[in-house]
């Protein structure tokens, strides 16, 4: 007839998380009840592509002819919006016309003007992310000519980086 909020109690038994809800006490014979449940489950990042719920209706009446149960499998989809931000310091670089690259030199200034590129990957949610791969393609050569001398690569925040073979090849 009307709608009521159920009082449910979470509990853990034998490594299984249970939620017990009292539907009616006493309940009249032949009564029909529809229950809509909304479950909020956290920590699903490593659960795979689905989570399974086992639902069972138990009666405290004796004798109870059936304890009906059903298994519901719900697909898990993580959703996150990633944003890549980048800038260069300085934003604009102009090489003097008289400047020439000095082959074999170990002095930084003989390899050009220092430009630092900074990239930030932001997770705007709502889910967390892991195992993200970011590949940056930086044109460092044009034919036999060096465009950018790649000096070093650094990361922050517990990320791993694989080094480019052209990284600081003259050991400046």
UniProtKB/TrEMBL annotation:
Organism for this UniProt entry: Grantiella picta
GO molecular function terms noted in the UniProt entry: integrin binding
Keywords: Glycoprotein, Integrin, Membrane
An individual GO BP term: integrin-mediated signaling pathway
Domain Integrin alpha third immunoglobulin-like stretches: 82-171
Protein name in the entry: ITA2B protein
Source organism phylogeny: Eukaryota, Metazoa, Chordata, Craniata, Vertebrata
Record localization: Membrane
Keyword flag Glycoprotein: yes
Its membrane topology: Single-pass type I membrane protein
GO annotation, cellular component aspect: external side of plasma membrane; integrin complex
Domain of life the protein comes from: Eukaryota
Stored InterPro entries: Integrin_alpha_Ig-like_2, Integrin_alpha_Ig-like_3, Integrin_dom_sf
Domain (Integrin alpha second immunoglobulin-like) ranges: 3-76
One Pfam family here: Integrin_A_Ig_3
Primary site of residence: membrane
